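User: Hey, quick favor. My workstation is busy. Could you predict this chain's structure for me?
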Amino acid sequence: MNEPDSLCMPVFTFSWPDACSPHAQAVEQHVIGWVEHYQLIPNQALRVRTIRARYGWLAARCYPSAPLDLLKTIADYIAWLFLVDDLLFDWAQHLSPRTVAHITAFIDVLDLNDTQAQPGFGERALLDICQRLRGQMDAEHFEYFAHGTRMVFASTALLILRRLNGEQMTLRQYGCARRHGSGVAPCIALLDSASAAPLESDVRFCLQVQQLKDSANTIISLINDIFSVSSELKQPGQSENIVMLLAGQQHSLQEGIELSANIVRIEIERFTKLSEQLLDPASPALNHYIQGLRYWLSGHQRWLENDTARYDSTSFDSEAQQRSIAHAVNYADSIIMP
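Assistant: No problem, here it is.
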């Protein structure tokens, strides 16, 4: 099996230009202050890691025309999603007696617009995001976002069930779990709020537009799997990844990366062809939506290549780094906010 640091990463290209919000640096500074305010980074090591991740830049590249206030909210949500997933689920070596409580608490925030009397890790931060979004979009579009976020945690529960049963996932099962668990779906749901022309419901839910959205989701999720595999192999917890799944089928890790990259390239061709077909007769709203999907694809790729150090595998090398991760995981799982 290849050593994680010796793996060769593929290059993905897109046939449209990328863009970036002029507010990128201001949003990046805002995100760090926000995660600190809501106690989402419990020690200095995680603070450094969060700064190096540059979640604000991801938002700025994927929503380049969003108004500043909305862009800040979106960036906070992206940071929240990554940190909650890391600390409560991905990095935890064992399931906690509080795992179900964490999942139901987040869904309750989305459903009830409130936290528990004694909120756990991340609850108040999610409530702040939801209350701001409710003021920045109409009820229908907020519900698209909320549904996507609920499905993130439904998928998390499926993966927990798989671990408990010791099951081996098929590629199709993994595709379903990753499509909903990656967090891409609720982020795509926020495209309309950043658009000058929201998509009509009858267009949003037509088969071809749904296929285009799912194709974009697959591309982003699997590219993230490929670029994160080196760091995930060194993480203390258990994780699911398309590369590792393919490598488990009598392939090396490098072969798993190449097979995954081929899947992504086929999907990019499919997305490009379908988007061009839809653009020709498209309404202004659908044009905005397709452009938004394209910005997400190219913006995520530019973030991986140019901005983030989130997937630097050396973050997990030393005993001190491992201890800091364990401390952060224990804090997130046990903390009760006054």
